[in-house]
Amino acid sequence: MAETVKLVDPRLLKVNVDNPRLIFRQKELDELQNSIEDQGILVPLSVFQEGNRFQLLDGERRWRCALKLGLSSVPVIVQPKPARLQNLMMMFAIHHARKDWDPLPTAIKLEDLEKEFRDKQGRDPSESELAGLASMSRGEVRRLKKLLRLPKVYRKELLEELEKPRSEQTLTVDQVLEATTAASALHKRGILDKNGEDDLRRAIVKKFKSRVEVNTVAPRLLAKLARGVQRNEVSMKVARRVADKLVTDPLYSISDAFRDSVEQSDFEHNLEQMVGRVIDQLKQHKKREYRISESLIGTLKNLRQQIERMLEE
Q1: Radius of gyration over alpha carbons of the chain, in Å?
Q2: If both were cysteines, with which of 7, 36, 99, 185 could 73 make a disulfide (CB 3.0 to 4.6 Å apart)?
Q3: Cα gap 107→62, rounded to integer Å
Q4: Considering the domain boundaries, does residue 252 fall inside one?
Q5: Structural domains counted in the chain
Q6: How many CB atoms lie within 10 A of CB 283?
Q7: What is the pTM of this model?
Q8: Domain check: are 52 and 121 in the same one?
Q9: Beta-bridge partners for 54
Q10: How many other β-carbons are positioned within 10 Å of the β-carbon of residue 44?
Q11: Under a CB-based contact definition with an 8 Å cutoff, are residues 48 and 78 in contact?
Q12: Which residues are paired to 14 by β-bridges?
C-alpha cells in the first residue's frame, strides 16, 4: 500500500523526546530555512498521531524551520504509533546515517534504549543485542558506552561545546576520551593515584582547548610511558616528574613529556623487536637452505657495517 502524504499545520506537531539528535546548530538551520523558503519542503516529515496532535519521527529540523517561516502547513506521512522501545529503535535507525549525528547526545539516548530493553526483558541487553536495537556496529556501541562512563562534568562540558558553531568548538568527544584513556594508563601502572589521574585528564583537556595540543591522538604517547615503566625502561621518578609537569605547566606538551622520558627507550624497544624479526627471518632462510642472492649479501654487509659503527661509538 502506497504511503499517503497529507498537509498538517506545523503547530499541531511536537518533538519526539526519544530523538538522538539533541543539538541543532543555528547556521545549519538557517541554511535549511533558506532552502525551504526558496523551494518549500521537498521531503515529507514522518509522524505518528496522538489525539489531535502529531509526534515527529523524522524531520524535526524541517519542522523548526517551518515554524520560523510561519508556514500554514507541512507535508507529512502518518505512521502507526510505535511502542516506546520501537520508537527508540526507529529514531536510531532513522538518524544513524546522518552525518551530523553527534556521539554524546546519541550515547545519552542509547542509555534510554538500554533501560527500555531492561524494563521489557528483565535483563540487560548483550552488546550484540544493543547494537542491533540501535542499528549500529558493536564497535560504535562500545565507543558510546565509554562516553557514558565519563564524569558528568565532562559530559556537560562537551554538550556545551556542541551548542557552539563548529568553527568555535575547542574540544571534541575523541579528545576527552583520549585524555581519559591516557590518564587511566598512568594510574594503572601506579604512576598516579586516583586524584592525580583526574588532575592529568583535566590538564590534557585544557591543553586541547588552549591549542597547546592539536593532535587528538597525542595522549597515546603517555600509554608508551606507562609501558616503559612496566618494562623498567623508565624510572617511576622520571614518569611522575613529567606527569606532574603536564599538570602544573600549561605550555608543557605531551610530546615534550614523551621526549623527556620514554622516547629513546621506546625507539630502542621497537628497534629490538625489528632486529628480532630479522634474526628469525635469517634463521628461516638458512633452515630452508635457500641460496643467498647477491642483493641480500649486499644488504647484510650494509647491516653489518651499521652495527659495527654503533658498537664502536
Answers
A1: 28
A2: 7
A3: 24
A4: yes
A5: 4
A6: 10
A7: 0.69
A8: no
A9: 13, 49
A10: 20
A11: yes
A12: 55
Helix/strand/coil percent split, the chain, to 5: 65, 10, 30
- Cell numbers representing residue 111 in the block: 542509555
The torsion defined by the Cα of 20, 22, 26 and 27, in degrees rounded to 10, comes to -40
Tell me which residue range forms the domain holding 282: 274-312
Q: Do 184 and 238 fall into the same domain?
A: yes
**Three-class HEC string of 156-180:** HHHHHHHCCCHHHCCCCHHHHHHHH
| Distance of alpha carbon 223 from alpha carbon 221, whole angstroms | 5
Does residue 88 lie in a domain region? no
Residue 95 lies in a domain: no
- Give yes or no: residues 174 and 126 share one domain: no
Owner of C-alpha cell 635457500: 290
Residue type for position 60: E
The DSSP call for residue 11 is: G
CATH classification of the domain holding 116:
1.10.10.10
Q: Which cell goes with 308?
A: 659495527
In a 13 Å sphere around the CA of 47, the CA atoms on its Cβ side amount to: 31
Q: Based on the domain organization, do 174 and 152 belong to the same domain?
A: no
Q: Which residue has the cell 522501545?
A: 85
Q: Which three cell numbers stand for residue 271?
A: 628497534
61 and 119 belong to one structural domain? no
Q: What string of pLDDT tens digits covers the 313 residues of the chain?
A: 446 788 999 999 988 877 766 667 777 788 888 888 888 887 888 888 888 899 888 888 889 999 999 999 999 988 888 888 887 787 777 666 555 567 888 888 888 888 888 988 899 999 988 888 888 888 888 988 988 899 999 999 998 888 787 778 889 999 999 999 999 999 999 999 999 999 999 999 999 999 999 999 999 999 999 999 999 999 999 999 999 999 999 999 999 999 999 999 999 999 999 999 999 999 999 999 999 999 999 999 999 999 999 998 7
- Residue 101's identity, in one-letter code, is W
Same domain, 237 and 195: yes
CATH code for the domain of 73:
3.90.1530.10
Is 203 part of a structural domain of the chain?
Answer: yes
Of 145, 162, 179, the domain-final residue: 162
